[in-house]
Write a structure and sequence with these properties.
single chain, about 250 residues, two-stranded antiparallel sheet
């Protein structure tokens, strides 16, 4: 029986701006996000590491660390994980006690000079194929980690779909032949919502019926959208894992 629901992702999984525009990780937002709603429905403890503006690397890191901590309290059979992977075109740099989030077109005014220079270098050297290969690896590592611990999960893309990169320079630089093992692994994963289909992302599905700019919001949905997404997810999760919640 599931007792703990662990959610990770970006601002969409944090319920950003549910309460009001410009507020990105308030307790009210977390409680009324799709994760909070699912937790309330089944009387689960809701753990949420979703970080507005965060990258998939941050999702990978916090998921592994947090799950290891949860395993000190819960049996693997008592934990369920939902991850809304974010755009692969993100990164971040920690400096002192601050985390600087690298997203294209970020306003970097006020950042330390060394972080500004790092951001500009990241923008200049950004390569979509390399970034996608990184995402494939992040997905593969988290999936393997969860399977190793016998923890059940469900994934979806929040914003943009995955694609098949043309090259994997970091692998092929040593003269190794290109392979598509991680692509095949992701494509065949029934617990990942149609990852290569741009029409099956959180944002694309909800924008058909809900306004992401209501009252000046920055492309985030209000509670009605999260209610719909919770129902959407549960419909698929319940088919994959019958009697999961009881």
């Amino acid at each position: 029986m599931i007792k703990a629901l662990y959610v990770n992702g970006c601002s969409h999984s944090a319920g950003a701006e549910i309460s009001r525009p410009g507020f990105y990780r308030q307790q009210y937002d977390l409680d009324h996000s799709f994760g909070g709603l699912i937790a309330q429905k089944y009387n689960l403890v809701h753990y949420n590491d979703a970080c507005p503006g965060g990258s998939n690397n941050l999702i990978q890191t916090t998921t592994v660390q947090s799950i290891l901590t949860l395993l000190e309290t819960y049996h693997p059979s008592e934990i369920f994980v939902i991850i809304g992977w974010t755009g692969y075109d993100r990164s971040e740099v920690g400096f002192g006690n601050d985390l600087y989030k690298f997203i294209p077109n970020t306003d970097i005014k006020g950042w330390p000079d060394r972080i500004n220079n790092s951001y500009k270098s990241w923008i200049m050297s950004f390569d979509h194929d390399v970034a996608m290969n990184n995402f494939l690896l992040q997905y593969g590592l988290v999936t393997t980690f969860l399977k190793y611990h016998n923890i059940r999960y469900y994934f979806f893309n929040s914003i943009i779909p995955a694609f098949e990169p043309r090259v994997n320079a970091l692998h092929e630089v040593l003269g190794k032949k290109p392979n598509h093992h991680l692509i095949k692994m992701m494509r065949e994963d029934s617990r990942f919502l149609d990852p290569f289909n741009g029409e099956m992302t959180f944002f694309h599905i909800l924008k058909q019926n809900y306004d992401s700019t209501k009252n000046g919001r920055w492309y985030h949905f209000t509670e009605d959208g999260h209610v719909a997404w919770a129902e959407f997810l549960l419909n698929r999760i319940d088919k994959l894992y019958p009697s999961l919640w009881t």
